[in-house]
Write a structure and sequence with these properties.
GO terms for molecular function: ATP binding; GMP kinase activity. The protein is α/β, with parallel strands linked by helices and 212 residues long. It has seven helices and nine strands. The protein folds into two domains: 128 residues, 3-Layer(aba) Sandwich (Rossmann fold); 69 residues, 2-Layer Sandwich (Guanylate Kinase phosphate binding domain).
Length: 212
């Protein structure tokens, strides 16, 4: 009997400079049946941005946001259709429940890159679906070097990011998996293996419950 792979909500967190953005991009390039979570926002589309709502859920990679009116956004929140949301500079941003649930029910996994607070919130709401991975830098000194190489922050901002990183790293034991990102390609392979294992495990659990 062929076991159909089930979709999982793959949640990645790391401190700033930990590598989750690069790792996420590479995972999406190499993984089949994995899409990036697309947020919903009330802000106006910028030049060149593509509205995710114009695409079927299996073809969403590379799309930017689901753009909606503020009225629509609040209606969805009141209906419980937003897993998480926040207001940033006069605009609302959120994670639409329907997008994630449709993909998972079709055997497509969803990649959500998010901070530890958002990760814990998703874990409470979708405990059975979430597979969480915390990405550690090899050391705090290496993290400092990575932040300095960006040339986007001054010395005081880097110190603030390092202080925030210490707090984020202290939450790592709450995640399902912790990896050390000392090599991007190795980290991508490690998370790919985790994704494969967790999808297979959930598929076997479902088959067992169905009496297969």
């Amino acid at each position: 009997m062929t076991i159909k792979n089930e979709g999982v909500l793959l949640v990645l967190s790391s401190p700033s400079g930990g590598g989750k953005t690069t790792i996420s991009a590479k995972l999406l390039e190499k993984s089949t049946n994995l899409v990036r979570s697309v947020s919903m926002t009330t802000r106006k589309p910028r030049s060149g941005e593509i509205n995710g709502k114009d695409y079927f859920f299996g073809e969403i990679n590379g799309k930017d946001y689901f753009f909606v009116t503020e009225e629509n956004f609040h209606e969805l929140c009141e209906a419980g259709q937003m897993l998480e949301y926040a207001k940033v500079f006069e605009n609302f941003y959120g994670i639409p429940r329907d997008f994630i649930e449709q993909n998972l029910s079709s055997g497509i996994s969803v990649l959500q890159s998010i901070d530890w607070q958002g990760a814990f919130h998703l874990l409470k709401l979708m405990t059975k679906e979430v597979v969480s991975v915390f990405i550690l830098p090899p050391s705090m000194e290496e993290l400092r070097l990575r932040l300095q190489k960006r040339n986007s922050d001054d010395a005081s901002e880097i110190e603030c990011r390092l202080a925030a990183a210490q707090k984020e790293i202290s939450k790592r034991d709450k995640y399902d998996y912790v990896i050390i990102n000392d090599d991007i390609d190795k980290s991508v392979e490690e998370i790919s293996s985790i994704l494969y294992k967790e999808r297979l495990k959930k598929s076997e659990e479902k088959l067992s419950l169905e009496g297969g």
